[in-house]
Specification:
Elements: E1 20-22, E2 28-33, E3 38-43, E4 49-54
Antiparallel strand pairs: 1-2, 2-3, 3-4
Length: 71
């Protein structure tokens, strides 16, 4: 039987992740960071952050099925 293994631990000790979404292609994770005051895009392969978008009041995240829209 296949045993799951931890591939990455997101290293962002200053932030809590109230929500997370995975892109349909599996290459990007999106988290609400900094207590819901930012959206952070992560490279799923390297586990490194790609982009931060400052936005207050993040409570939920979703990525559309085509991977082109983040809500």
């Amino acid at each position: 039987a296949h045993k799951p293994t931890l591939k990455h631990r997101f290293e962002d000790r200053s932030a809590q992740f109230p929500c997370v979404a995975l892109s349909p292609d599996g290459r990007t994770y999106v988290t609400a960071a900094d207590g819901g005051k930012a959206v952070r895009l992560w490279d799923a392969e390297t586990g490194k952050p790609r982009l931060d978008i400052k936005q207050a009041g993040i409570r939920a995240l979703a990525i559309d099925g085509a991977g082109k829209l983040l809500a």
